[in-house]
Design brief:
The protein has about 200 residues and is mainly alpha-helical. The chain is about 65% helix and about 0% strand. The mean pLDDT is about 95. Bound molecules: fe (ii) ion (2 copies).
């Protein structure tokens, strides 16, 4: 794996200044949440730093690289190419940043959609991406921000609900994995359902 400081420099040159600032916000938030839940800080830092590593590549290049690396695009990804960067990002984290830790790679892979039975690291990266301090505030964000440090599953659940609401409003296709993530939490009885 590349040295952390080298990774920071490499990611800085791969991202727009705005996305680099967002990324640093995600790193800062992921470290804070990881400390609360006794999650490995290094894993959280690296997954956060690399989560959007290919997001500023043009969609055409992302699709081309997916072909090259045999990453299958599902129907929802084809309709909404914004979803591709997570899967491709995990592959690039492995190939270019030499990350081998499958927990880190999965947290990158599922940071946009979530998935059923998310790991603690998945949850931390998904949430940090959602609540990092540079995000412009919207209704419900402050609630998720405070829950993140006290009730991790409840925070993920609220963030998933808000994500689904937003996707519907935007009339974008909802990825089935996002619904699976929500239903998994509902069935786990770890959260209070919306009523
Ligand atoms: Fe992302
Ligand atoms: Fe992000």
């Amino acid at each position: 794996m590349l040295d952390y400081n080298n990774m920071v420099e490499k990611i800085r040159s791969a991202l727009s200044p705005r996305r680099f600032i967002h990324t640093l916000g995600v790193v800062e938030t992921a470290v804070k949440i990881a400390k609360v839940y006794y999650i490995d800080i290094e894993q959280a830092k690296i997954a956060a730093l690399l989560h959007d590593c290919v997001k500023d590549y043009p969609h055409s290049l992302q699709i081309q690289l997916c072909k090259e690396f045999h990453i299958p695009l599902d129907e929802t990804m084809k309709k909404n190419p914004e979803l591709i960067h997570s899967f491709l990002g995990a592959e690039i984290a492995k190939r270019e940043y030499e990350v081998e830790d499958s927990y880190i790679l999965d947290a990158i892979r599922y940071h946009t959609t979530g998935r059923a039975n998310m790991t603690l690291l998945d949850k931390i990266i998904f949430l940090s991406d959602y609540i990092e301090p540079n995000r412009t505030s919207f209704i419900g964000l402050e609630n998720v921000r405070s829950l993140a440090y006290t009730h991790l599953d409840q925070a993920v659940y609220q963030a998933l609900l808000l994500t689904i609401e937003y996707i519907k409003e935007q009339k974008k296709p909802l990825h089935p994995r996002t619904l699976e993530a929500l239903q998994y939490l509902e069935n786990s009885k770890m959260i209070k359902n919306k009523d």
